[in-house]
């Protein structure tokens, strides 16, 4: 309650003379909270980010926001900031995510249009990439993410103790995954470029071009297929593999024309995409388990079966991932099919 009063006092001093109401806008998997400020005089609503400075550093968010804005992506505009208190006043990109929009109107034509916009923004961000500007998505970071799986998913969530042989097999598989990931061409990576972090901007509202992009503070310089995995092997919505393949081919063809560093052959590009997905799905299962067991957030449990299904499908396609599939069969004996298919 004290934190909310601090925020109200800061907003009142930032916008003197403007009467406002605050309502929760959203929360994410971090300690950040978002509030929507509406004004009695009919002024456009604003978003206020509350990032407690002892838990969240606003500087990466501000840095990436500027990088993406200059690249031509539509990110929230920073209207006022107080780094000491951990407050930002931002333009409001609305309250409709891609996920919400696609659930309301679940047809492939609409999805194709929205994803074309998302790929256009992603390509703009990637075209602006250069080394030395964002943290590297290096082996240490990729491996640290993979290790969330044995710690939080296997041991804590499933209550399984791996044998020494299983641990050695898992580590050997991690080495193969990382070797493929790290051999990819490098670009700016949003790191969570999916349907919950892409906002549908209605032209009539004057909010600008689609999509509005949020939750980008963890951006890095890393594998070019990573954000494509986030987008098309989304933990919150399933797409037919034919649809994904079509979108990927369109992206790959456009990327080549733009001079982005994609593989010369689509088959090689697609293999990179699949193996990058394996890394991400292993990580996400660990993160979802940690959010539940450590942070008390149980909403992500319902999304685990879809992520596990993505992981299983990839493991079945590649012989080198056979040992991982065998371990998954011990953890999850039944193959569960879930999600939305359009």
Automatic annotation (TrEMBL):
One of its GO terms (molecular function) is transferase activity. Keywords: ATP-binding, Nucleotide-binding, Transferase. Residues 22-251 form the Aminoglycoside phosphotransferase domain. InterPro entries: Aminoglycoside_PTrfase, Kinase-like_dom_sf. It comes from the Bacteria. SUPFAM superfamilies: Protein kinase-like (PK-like) (SSF56112). The keyword Ribosomal protein does not apply. PANTHER family: N-ACETYLMURAMATE_N-ACETYLGLUCOSAMINE KINASE (PTHR33540:SF1), TRNA THREONYLCARBAMOYLADENOSINE BIOSYNTHESIS PROTEIN TSAE (PTHR33540). This is Aminoglycoside phosphotransferase.
């Amino acid at each position: 309650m004290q934190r909310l009063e601090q925020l109200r006092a800061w907003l009142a001093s930032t916008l003197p003379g403007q009467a406002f109401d605050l309502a929760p806008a959203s929360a994410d998997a971090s300690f950040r909270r978002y509030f929507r400020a509406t004004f009695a005089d009919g002024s456009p609503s604003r978003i206020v980010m509350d990032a407690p400075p002892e838990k969240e550093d606003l500087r990466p968010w501000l840095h990436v926001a500027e990088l993406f804005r200059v690249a031509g992506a539509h990110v929230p505009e920073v209207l006022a900031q107080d780094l000491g208190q951990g407050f930002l006043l931002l333009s409001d990109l609305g309250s409709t995510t891609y996920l919400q929009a696609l659930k309301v109107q679940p047809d492939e034509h609409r999805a194709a249009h929205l994803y074309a916009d998302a790929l256009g923004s992603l390509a703009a961000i990637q075209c602006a990439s250069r080394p030395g500007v964002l943290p590297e998505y290096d082996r240490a970071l990729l491996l640290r993410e993979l290790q969330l799986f044995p710690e939080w998913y296997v041991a804590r969530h499933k209550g399984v103790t791996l044998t020494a042989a299983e641990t050695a097999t898992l580590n050997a598989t991690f080495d193969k995954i990382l070797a493929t990931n790290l051999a990819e061409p490098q670009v700016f990576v949003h790191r969570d470029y999916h349907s919950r972090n892409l906002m549908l901007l209605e032209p009539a509202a004057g909010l600008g071009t689609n999509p509005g992009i949020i939750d980008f503070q963890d951006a890095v310089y890393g594998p070019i297929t990573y954000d494509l995995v986030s987008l098309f092997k989304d933990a919150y919505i399933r797409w037919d593999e034919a649809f994904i393949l079509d979108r990927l081919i369109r992206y790959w063809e456009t990327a080549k024309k733009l001079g982005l560093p994609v593989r010369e052959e689509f088959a090689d590009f697609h293999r990179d995409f699949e193996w990058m997905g394996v890394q991400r799905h292993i990580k996400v299962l660990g993160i979802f388990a940690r959010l539940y067991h450590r942070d008390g957030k149980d909403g992500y449990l319902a999304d685990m079966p879809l992520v596990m299904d993505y992981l299983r499908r990839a493991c079945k396609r590649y012989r080198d991932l056979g040992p991982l599939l065998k371990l998954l069969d011990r953890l999850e004996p039944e193959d569960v099919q879930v999600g939305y298919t359009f």
